[in-house]
Structures are given as structure tokens and as C-alpha cells.
Amino acid sequence: MTATEVITDADWEAQRAADRQMLPNVLDQSMELPHVLLSYQQQLLQTTAHYQFVVCEKSRRIGMTWAVGADGVLTSGLARAEGGMDTLYIGFNLDMAREFIDTCAMWAKAFMPAASSVQEFLFKDQDDGKEDRDIQAFRIRFASGFEIVALSSKPRSLRGRQGYVIFDEAAFHDELEEMLKAANALLMWGGKVLVISTHDGDANAFNVLVRQVNEGEKGDTAKVVRVTFNDAVDAGLYERIALIQRAQGREPMGKQKWIDSTHAVYGDDADEELHCIAKAGTGAWLSAPLIEARMNAEAPCLELELPDDYLQRTNAQQKELMRLFLERLEKVLSAVPLDVLYALGFDFARVSDLSVLTLLAIEKNMHRREALSIEMRNVPGNEQKLIVGMVMERIRTRCVGAAFDATGMGWTVAEDVGRKFGLKEGDDSPGMVWAIKFSQDWYRINMPPLKTAFEEATISIGRWDPHMSDLRAVKKVRGIPRVPEIREADAKGKKRHGDYAIALALAHFASRMRWVEIDYTPVPNNQNREPHSGQLGMTADEQDALNRPWWNPPLGTAMRGGL
């Protein structure tokens, strides 16, 4: 390429990749691997050779991933009889994947020139029954029959794969616990797992994992390797950097000045970024004292948990299981005043998590005060719709909006409630029900106003310890407040997933939206709308819908003809 030719982005990226695939000449002087790697890099490779599950908490920019590339090449370059296996690298973005593969290519050329070159391919991934999607991936294949594969994010088809799994910068993965579950299955058949990262707060799943391994919860085959910035400096990191800079024609700064400038770059974060000290509260969105200060509303929390065999019980048994809760709900709703406006939020779940309803009263001074909350565990969809409908009926003349989680199965509740109370299509459309499909943009736009409400004391919620835990579960994930994929147990040992925090965010969102009056009267399917006496105020068709199994037709309909 001549000096006058324009360098395209593709040319520049190709040159960068080629540079990364070359061992620095200053090190390529017939040095054996132990001499190329610094002592802490050697320690990591020795540990992965002796332990199946290794966690490495490290300082930034000390060359750990560079050394792990050598480990991957040595592992996948061996024959099966010698302990060879595939290496599966998982970073949290595509650039990390590309850089790791280029580093492995460098080591492969140094160790075994016959290794094939880097290949790009599309990896098929299926997201919980949805359509297949192609994920760009990179790999190096070896004569051993094994390969190093790097992906920008973990595909679910990691389940069923076998090999050496490497999670890089694990603290910054959105679903670390779920990824580890998939990777742990590999250990049963002789695979290995390496989890490597700097810290991102003491509540982060990575720090929890470090603590579990150190306390022996992961067994004798698990080990933690800890390397701070000072450890790396003592092992010769500065001298190695200076050696390479001089070979490139640059004069390095003095050692102490370099150390001081590195600390200055990280400032108050130096302990966490350089010295492996997880910062207390890092990533936490709301502090415990702030949440507790806003827990000054008289707001009952009604809980309903149904047995696993609820659907197998008779109609009479099901009604009896629901009766006490519905009676209590009616009593609470009758005490809800109708001289203020209301906004409702509903986070749906059916199996592993809670469904949570939160009702916010909007006082005349625009203060949001929680009126009640409802938590449902293992409750079928029809029963959830009945409960939500009872609340909506009570506030329908005073409700400015209701926001429903419409992700996955939640859409059925949002749709059916919207059918009765009006489904909104946009900010200026009529209707009462917002069907919210969560996205990063939704969290980015709508979570900050809720935090402002806490900080400026314009919201009051009920005093309920599990709700404190749910609100504390919200973390900043890559700068966006959301609930990570980490489930915590409450005092009863039941799993929670920040469900109340999401319901509250939905209710607060609905309370801020513009109210558009809708002039709509549904066509009744029963001319006599008088309630059945003793049936909790339900009309005949509502009672029929609750009692009637799905295979029977509703009142007033029948099948014509024969089968």
C-alpha cells in the first residue's frame, strides 16, 4: 500500500488483527513459554491445569487474557488422549471475541504453525422458542480436531457442548449466574471453567462467586487466583511494558511515575480497578437508607400462594383456596378512597418469579403514595386476571393509567385487561392499559424518574422488608438501571427477582403519562347485570367464567351439529 492510498476501515481492522496475531519480536528469541509469561500469568495457567473450576479476580490491564490465550491454544492443540478439548470463550461484546481469537492466533503461530487461520462464521442461536438468529462468531481449528470458538455473548446451545469455557470480564455479563449453570454441566464430563474479571461492586454476582469459592462452597476442585496491580508490578509488569515500548522506538516513563499515573487515571476507583477490592454498593441504584426513608405509607401487602396441584383440584377446592384471599381483597379495596387519582403497575410471572401489583395514589400535590400491593406466587393466569380486574373495577373512574408487563406470557393479561378497560396504542390514544415490552431504552428512559421521586421525597411506599430487597436488587448494568438475572431468597427461602421494583416502576410510569379520556361502553353479554348474592360482587358471567372449565362453552352458547 502506497503512502497516497486511502486506508479504509476494513484495511485498518485487518492491520490491527494482523498485529495482534504476531508475538512481539522482542519476546520471540527462542524463549520458552514459562519465560515469556510473567510469574502471575504462569500461576494462572498452572492453576487451570490442576483445578476444574478457577476464578481469577484481577487488576485491569495486566495481560491476563493474553496469557489465557496461550492456555486455550495448548488445550485445544492437544489430542483427546492427552487431555485436549474445545475452548469456548465468552466475552460480553464482539470486539472482545475478535481480540481473544487474534491473541490465540498469535500463540498458535508460535506453538504450531500448522494451525489453520482465523475463521468467521455465523452461529445459530434460539431464544426461548423464538426464531433462530445468527450470531457472528470466530474460531481457530487445530489438527487435533478441536477448536477455539469465541462468541460475543453466550448462546443457549452452550448446553450440550463440551470443553474449556472461559468467561472474560465476568462481572460485566448480564446473566452470569445463568451462564455458569450452563457451563457447570461441562464439569461432569471432564470439562473446565475459568471465570476471569475485575470487580464491579460487592453485590455483583462475580464477587459473590469469589466469596463462595473462597469459603469452600464450590468444593475441592475450585480455586481462586487473585492478582492485584502491585502483584503484577512486583512480577515485572513495568519492565515488560518498557521492554516492548523500547523495541517500538518509544522511551518509557520512569517506573514510579508510571505507577503514580496509573493510579491517577483510576482515581477513587483504584482500589476496585487495580487492587481487587470490591467497592461497597457499587452498581447499586438506590441506597437502603433512602428506600427506608420513603417507607412511610400505610399500604397493605396482600400475598397469595397456591399449591402446585391447584389446577388438578376440583372446582370447589379451587374456589375455597381463593375465597379467603378474595374476601380480604374486597375488604381492602372497599377502604381505598375515591377522592384521588390512581396509577397501577403489574409485573407478571407464572412459575419461578412473583406476579406483583402496585397501586399508587396521586395526591393533589402530585405526591405518589402507595395504596396497596399484591404478590402472587404460583397463581394461574385466569386467577391473576380476576384479581387484577377487581382492583381495576374499584378505581376505574379514578385511574389515569395502568402499565402491564407484556413480555412473554404477560401479554395475555395485558391484552385481556385492555380488552375490558381500553388498550392504549400511544401517548395520545384513548384507553387505560399500557402494554409494556421491556427494553434497554425503556429502562434507560423510565427508571431515572423513579429514582428522582425517591431522592426528592415525592413518593411514599409501604414498609415491607421484601420490597426493600427488591428495590436494592436494581443495579446499573452498563449504565442502565435494571434488575440483573440474579435471584435472591427472602426470609422464607422463596426466590425473588426484584419483582416489586419492576411493578413500582410500571406504576410510576403510568402515573406520569398523559390521561386521555375514552368514551366507550362495552356491549353486555348478559342483559341482567345484577350481581350474584354472596359471590363477592361478581356478575353472573364473571362467576361463570371463574367456575367453567375451558372445555365447556360460556353461558348462552352451544355447539351446533355433531362430531
Automatic annotation (TrEMBL):
Pfam families hit by this protein: Terminase_6N
InterPro entries, per the entry: P-loop_NTPase (IPR027417)
Stated name of the protein: Phage FluMu gp28-like protein
